[in-house]
């Protein structure tokens, strides 16, 4: 290291943590000027970050769909006996999935629901646009279930039923 000291902070000049880490990596790998290589690697990561985001978001949504389906299947198998003695055994499963999807919508997209008080108590018709995937309906129904404890049925295009799972 610098001046034969064991620590980066000891010695006549103190250095930053990143500089200390650079010196440690240079000694460990035997490569001189490793900072140039690291700055190039960070540049490539920064350059490819939008592509990673474009492919990670659909992957996370598909994984969450399959986790939801798996959760419902396990919940159904576990509660087959309880279903005979309970009025609705699916309350717990709805709560868990609504929380999962609402958390994903809030964290990943900043999804908020305004004007829920304007939805009538009886039957109603909500018409809304969805993009390439009907993920906004999933966020809407999850948030509505958490806020009002209401379920809504959907009339959908044939595309929705072609989604895997």
Number of domains as seen in the coordinates: 2
Parts with pLDDT < 50 across at least 5 consecutive residues: 1-5
Question: How many angstroms separate the termini?
Answer: 57 Å
Radius of gyration: 26 Å
Overall pLDDT, averaged?
A: 77
Q: Give the overall form.
A: elongated
Oligomer designation: single chain
As a percent range, the share of strand residues is under 5%
Total helix count?
4
Name the structural class.
mainly alpha
Task: Kindly list the characteristics that best describe this protein.
165 residues, mainly alpha, disordered N terminus
Write the layout of secondary structure elements.
Elements: H1 17-29, H2 34-78, H3 91-109, H4 135-148
Protein name: TMM68 protein
Organism: Oxylabes madagascariensis
Transmembrane segments: 43-72
